[in-house]
Amino acid sequence: xxxxxxxxxxxxxxxxxxxxxxxxxxxxxxxxxxxxxxxxxxxxxxxxxxxxxxxxxxxxxx
Length: 62
What we know:
Layout: E1 6-8, E2 15-17, H1 30-41, H2 57-61
Antiparallel strand pairs: 1-2
């Protein structure tokens, strides 16, 4: 007997069944998926990173 896995939609927190049939997983709908994608496009979400100094001409020749 397999266990049914449920997750919360990252956008609206609605319960989503995690299965091969879940078309928009981990989202509950296309709408929530597009809302999340829009946040990435508008830079509402950012992945933290360290700024790197631009290479100088001497470093590019190596």
